[in-house]
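User: Could you go from structure to sequence for me? I need the amino acid at each position, not a summary. Structure tokens:
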């Protein structure tokens, strides 16, 4: 893949709504764009925890141990289900507590199924892995900024108000629950 083709593929996959993007959106709706952007290092660390080993040795490992891919998928499904349950809680139960912290975003991103695609398909390269990883990191930051901007817009339009934030959290919870069910189906069927 050429660098522009790789950039487009990474960008499109990163922009796809998923657990990490949903959490960045909720974080920005709760604390604004800058508050959500302070979580980006945790997102990058989570991606690199998964992507780097996969890019270096992952393909051979997963070919030899198919059960490992199923296990990772099911672990991701369980974590996303826990996040869905957490976001479903009434605001009174989590009053004063930000629903998305650095640790939550880190673990969610490390278990994000997109990391498998990045680490096994898009980023590995014998001659330019370093460049690919730098490009990937820059695009992660860009996409986080876009999702955070969406959350900040919602905040300015009143989503920071208790009722609107409650609805946003419930919508994110339902979305994450649906992702969890899809991951479970993929993990069992894989």
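Assistant: Here is the amino acid at each position, in order:
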């Amino acid at each position: 893949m050429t660098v522009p083709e790789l950039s487009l593929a990474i960008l499109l996959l990163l922009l796809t709504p998923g657990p990490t993007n949903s959490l960045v959106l909720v974080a920005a709706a709760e604390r604004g764009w800058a508050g959500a952007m302070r979580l980006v290092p945790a997102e990058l660390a989570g991606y690199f925890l998964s992507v780097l080993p996969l890019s270096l040795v992952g393909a051979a490992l997963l070919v030899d141990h198919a059960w490992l891919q199923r296990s990772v998928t099911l672990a991701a499904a369980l974590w996303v289900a826990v996040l869905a349950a957490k976001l479903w809680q009434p605001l009174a139960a989590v009053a004063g507590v930000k629903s998305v912290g650095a640790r939550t975003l880190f673990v969610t991103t490390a278990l994000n199924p997109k990391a498998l695609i990045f680490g096994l398909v898009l980023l590995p390269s014998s001659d330019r892995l370093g460049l690919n990883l730098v490009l990937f990191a820059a695009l992660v930051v860009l996409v986080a900024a876009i999702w955070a901007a969406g959350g900040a817009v919602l905040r300015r339009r009143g989503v920071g108000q208790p009722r609107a934030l409650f609805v946003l959290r419930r919508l994110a919870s339902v979305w994450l629950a649906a992702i969890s069910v899809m991951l479970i189906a993929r993990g069992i069927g894989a």
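One structural detail worth keeping in mind: The chain has a mean pLDDT of 83.
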